[in-house]
């Protein structure tokens, strides 16, 4: 419990600093974009290469990874069923709701939190890969098809367009700096020999900047004006909030316990499962003009609820 409070306190101070500089504008109007780009394209890939490159490659075939993959899939299916069959939302809104329920903020929040709390960011690798290589591409194909239909693209061209979209999404995914860093780290870890420390030292130095940069950027985003004036349906926001803050962590703890995870291993999967909705979801919603209000409100509400959720997890598993 004390470790969680210490980690959350440290994170809160850095986020508050980001909010302050964002609110006052002392770093200029483009500061958030520049800091985010630096964290995303330089610091975070370096951190992932250095961390994963030194890690046991069996991580991706571990019980912890299985818990992450299985519970994320269950949460996504539950969200899709409730939003699509019970609440009768459109396909585009269902996709955004599914992403808001299952797409965790493994970067901006997950990396610094696991770095400060667990001393390693390895636990964010399975959800990052699952989101970027599975959830993201599927969602992009559906959202693009919805946009094409809304914009009046002729029916006969949709299959070819969908195939082209899939190739485009996969291409963008494999050019994603976080994915590049992750896959590079995996390749290094798979080598039959160990690289000398001199190779990892500059990566470690660059990677050390990733958590504070991500937190400052997140704090600055909280100071920015809200996008759009519409309100998301309260029932949809409540569904996402419950799935993110309660159901997903409970599933992770339950399945992890059944699979024999104990101690830090169980704590790691529980912490990752309790992370708030990723900011990427709002970016996707804005891009495809689907579920923008839900993505925006879900990001804010789940970020607030993540604090008590993590404290409960620490009390239960500590």
From TrEMBL:
Keyword Cell membrane applies: yes
Subcellular location: Membrane
Keyword Manganese applies: no
Gene Ontology biological process terms, A to Z: transmembrane transport
Keywords for the protein's UniProt record, in alphabetical order: Cell membrane, Membrane, Transmembrane, Transmembrane helix, Transport
Membrane topology (UniProt): Multi-pass membrane protein
Membrane-spanning segments: 34-53, 65-86, 177-195, 201-225, 237-259, 265-286, 298-317
Cellular component aspect of the GO annotation: membrane
Main location per the UniProt record: membrane
Pfam families: Mem_trans
Protein name per UniProt: Membrane protein
Organism: Cellulomonas pakistanensis
Lineage, highest ranks first: Bacteria, Bacillati, Actinomycetota, Actinomycetes, Micrococcales
């Amino acid at each position: 419990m004390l470790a969680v409070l210490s980690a959350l306190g440290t994170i809160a101070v850095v986020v508050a600093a980001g909010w302050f500089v964002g609110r006052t504008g002392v770093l200029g109007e483009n500061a958030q974009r520049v800091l985010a780009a630096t964290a995303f394209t330089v610091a975070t890939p370096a951190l992932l290469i250095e961390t994963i490159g030194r890690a046991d490659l069996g991580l991706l075939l571990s019980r912890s990874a299985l818990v992450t993959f299985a519970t994320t899939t269950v949460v996504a299916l539950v969200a899709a069923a409730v939003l699509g069959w019970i609440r009768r939302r459109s396909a585009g809104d269902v996709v955004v709701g599914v992403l808001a329920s299952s797409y965790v903020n493994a970067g901006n929040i997950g990396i610094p939190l696991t770095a400060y709390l667990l001393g390693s960011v390895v636990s964010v690798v399975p959800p990052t890969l699952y989101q970027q290589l599975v959830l993201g591409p599927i969602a992009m194909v559906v959202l693009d098809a919805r946009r094409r239909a809304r914009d009046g693209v002729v029916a006969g061209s949709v299959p070819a367009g969908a195939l082209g979209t899939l190739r485009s999404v996969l291409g963008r995914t494999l050019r994603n700096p976080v994915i590049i860093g992750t896959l590079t780290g995996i390749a290094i870890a798979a080598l039959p020999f160990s690289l000398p420390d001199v190779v990892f030292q500059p990566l470690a130095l660059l990677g050390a900047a990733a958590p504070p940069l991500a937190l400052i950027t997140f704090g600055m985003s909280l100071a920015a004006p809200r996008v759009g004036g519409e309100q998301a349906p309260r029932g949809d926001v409540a569904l996402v909030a419950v799935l993110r803050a309660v159901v997903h962590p409970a599933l992770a703890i339950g399945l992890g316990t059944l699979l024999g995870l104990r101690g830090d291993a169980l704590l790691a999967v529980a912490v990752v499962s309790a992370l708030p909705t990723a900011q990427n979801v709002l970016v996707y919603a804005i891009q495809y003009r689907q579920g923008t209000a839900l993505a925006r409100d879900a990001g804010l509400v789940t970020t607030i609820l993540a604090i008590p959720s993590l404290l409960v997890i620490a009390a239960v598993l500590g």
